[in-house]
Amino acid sequence: MKDSAVKKIAVLTSGGDAPGMNAALRAVVRTANYYDIHCYGVREGYNGLIHNDFLKMGPRSVKNIINQGGTILRSARSKEFMTKEGRQTAYENCKQLGIEAIVCIGGDGTFTGAKIFNEEFGIKVIGVPGTIDNDIFGTDNTIGYDTALNTAMDAIDKIRDTATSHNRVFFIEVMGRDAGFIALNSGLATGALDILIPEKKDSADDLFANFLKAEKTGKSSSIVVVAEGEKLNNVYELAEKAKEKFPDYDIRVAILGHIQRGGSPSCADRVLASRLGYGAVTGLMEGQNCVMAGMRSNELVFTPIEEAIKKHNEINQDLLLISEILAI
Ligand code: F6P
Fold first, then answer.
1. Residue 1 banded pLDDT, cuts 50, 70, 90
2. Half-sphere exposure of 89 (CA within 13 A, CB side)
3. Residue 212 C-alpha to ligand 1 middle, in angstroms?
């Protein structure tokens, strides 16, 4: 590889943690060290830039973490970094240490901070998409999504066991603040009767019509998967409405919550994280700036960070149709 455009970089994890962030960190640190680039970890996301919380990272500093959930650097949604004063202090700390570029592992909030910091102070930034929500444009999958999906699937399978034993209807909320990727795919994978996601216009009437259909075809228990960001109603409100309409139904609610954010990353997430961590460092070496490293059709691609934040991956409509057909 020809001369690197950067000689000293920092890496941080920010926003909601996601399984595979450690694998991405490991890839960044080891790729940088392999190419003789000084690499500093920043603790607690952007807070660490402001509080001068840097640690020099060599290859051994990331040993035995590829299989660990969470992030050894810890994470935060930094309020201080949202202020100009906070970012000014962060810049001064970076300047003092000679940091030329920062690898920012996180979601859209993380990338928004990175973009502003780059525009204000010229420190190079590169994003690595790490969020269970999969709501980042410029990559087919985000780091953590596959693991979260499998966690949700396992949990819903378990709920199905008890739902079947008691002839119950379960409304199950899965994570996804603004996006229904986890709901749609875990719902399809667990044979949900209905899947409610913010990307489609749902109605209580349609849901109730599905309950009636299920009754007619002899179903005695049902699972409805609801994305956290569903616009119609939250799970409790839906359960209440359903109870009013179907007083004989035995209805329960389960919110899977943060269990979806933890655990050892899946193989797919470890491989994705390794490729994107490597891609981020080599991208910086080749002069990339203010872009996000992503994987599209198994190829490393760089997308302007602004697009990664503003644009959205479309929900696959086929999956909705398939789930409806298979729920008869
Ligand atoms: O963005 C990831 C995510 O897990 C969302 O799905 C969820 O809405 C949010 O983070 C929860 O954030 P917190 O950990 O701050 O409660």
1. low
2. 14
3. 34
State the pTM of this model.
0.97
Evaluate: CB of 19 within 6 angstroms of ligand 1.
no
Instruction: Tell whether 125 and 103 lie within a shared domain.
Output: yes
Q: Where are the extended beta strands (E) located within the chain?
A: 8-13, 38-42, 54-56, 101-106, 124-129, 168-174, 194-196, 222-227, 250-255, 291-296, 299-304
Q: Assess whether pLDDT exceeds 90 at residue 33.
A: yes
**Dihedrals φ, ψ of 72, to 5°?**
-65, -20
As a whole number, mean pLDDT of residues 286-294 equals 98
- Answer yes or no: 133 catalytic: yes
Q: For residue 304, what pLDDT band results from cuts at 50, 70 and 90?
A: very high
Same domain, 306 and 201: no
Residue 60's domain is classified under what CATH number? 3.40.50.450
Residue 135 Cα: closest atom of ligand 1:
1
Q: Residue 144 in contact with residue 21, Cβ under 8 Å?
A: yes
